[in-house]
Amino acid sequence: MNNPQIEIQLIAAVVAIACAIPGVFLVLRKMALISDAISHAILPGIVIGFFITQDLNSPILILLAALTGVITVVLVEIIQKTKLVKEDTAIGLVFPALFSIGVILIAKNANDVHLDVDAVLLGELAFAPFDRLLISGMDMGPKSLWVMGVILIMTLALLVMFFKELKVSTFDTGLSSALGFSPIILHYGLMSVSSITVVGAFDAVGAILVVALMIAPAATAYLLTSDLKKMLGLSIGIGVFAAIAGYWLAHILDTSISGSMTTVLGLVFLLVYLFAPSKGLLSVLYRQKQQRIEVSLITFLLHLTNHSEENERHINHLNEHINWQKVRSKNVLNLALKNNMITIENKVVSLTNKGQEFTDLAIEYIITNRDENIEHMKDDFFLFRG
Amino acid sequence: MFKQISMKKIYLIFITIAFFGCKNTSEDNGKLKVVTTTSMITDLVKNIGGDLVEIEGLMGAGVDPHLYKASEGDVSKFYNADVIFYNGLHLEGKLVEVLEKMEGQQKTTVALGEFLDKKELIGSTYFTSNYDPHVWFNIQFFKQFAEKVTAVLSEKAPKHKAAFEENNTVFQEQLSQLELEVRSIIATLPEEKRVLVTAHDAFNYFGKEYGFNVVGLQGISTATEAGVQDVQKLSDFIIENKVKAIFIESSVPRRTIEALQQAVLSKDHEVIIGGSLYSDALGDAGSVEGTYIGMFTYNVNTIVNALR
Question: Where are its TM segments located (chain A) (predicted)?
Answer without folding.
Answer: 6-28, 33-52, 58-78, 90-107, 144-163, 175-198, 204-224, 231-250, 256-276
